[in-house]
Amino acid sequence: MEGQSKKGIEGTTLDLASNRHGNLVSASNDENLKDIFHQIRTSKKPAVINYGASWCHVCSQILPTFCQLSSKFPKLSFIYADIDECPDTTQHIRYTPTFHFYRDGERVDEMFGAGEERLHDRLWLHS
């Protein structure tokens, strides 16, 4: 629709790496994020959710790395959720960026803040 702004990763003005494995998705609203949670629980595939915000400078700094790492770890599902676009399902998020790591349908780890090396190491650990 004309006049409607893009949401999620597509709505950023950042130059983001393309994902060649199809394992990077963006939650566009609460219903979409609920569906993603359901997929994580039922598929049991390892996943990481990056909770960020368009106004968060640190989030904007780590998002390109998050997208690049999605190509480096093809067995992991990468999800970006903007807390302003998914306010009901992200009301428990108190700091951006926050990363939640899932294995076998359960959250097993969490990381606050940015840090390319820390994020890489956590992804390696959970892949």
Largest sheet: 5 strands, mixed
Which strands sit side by side, in order, in the main sheet? 1-3-2-4-5
Distance between the termini: 38 Å
Number of helices: 3
N-to-C order of helices and strands: EHEHEEEH
> Nearest-angstrom radius of gyration?
13 Å
SS-based class: alpha/beta
Helix fraction by DSSP (H/I, runs of at least 4)? 25-40%
Uncertain spans: none
Strand content: 15-25%
For the secondary structure, the number of strands is 5
Shape: globular
Mean pLDDT: 89
Summarize the structure.
This protein has 127 residues and is α/β, with parallel strands linked by helices.
Structural overview:
- The protein has 3 helices and 5 strands; from the N terminus they run E-H-E-H-E-E-E-H.
- It has 127 residues and is α/β, with parallel strands linked by helices.
- The protein has a 5-stranded mixed beta sheet, with helices on both faces.
- Strand 2, helix 2 and strand 3 form a beta-alpha-beta unit.
- Helix 2 packs parallel to helix 3.
- The chain is globular, with a radius of gyration of 13 Å.
- The model has no long low-confidence stretch (mean pLDDT 89).
Notable characteristics:
single chain; 127 residues; alpha/beta; five-stranded mixed β-sheet; 3 helices; 32% helix; globular; Thioredoxin_domain; TRL33; Thioredoxin-like_sf
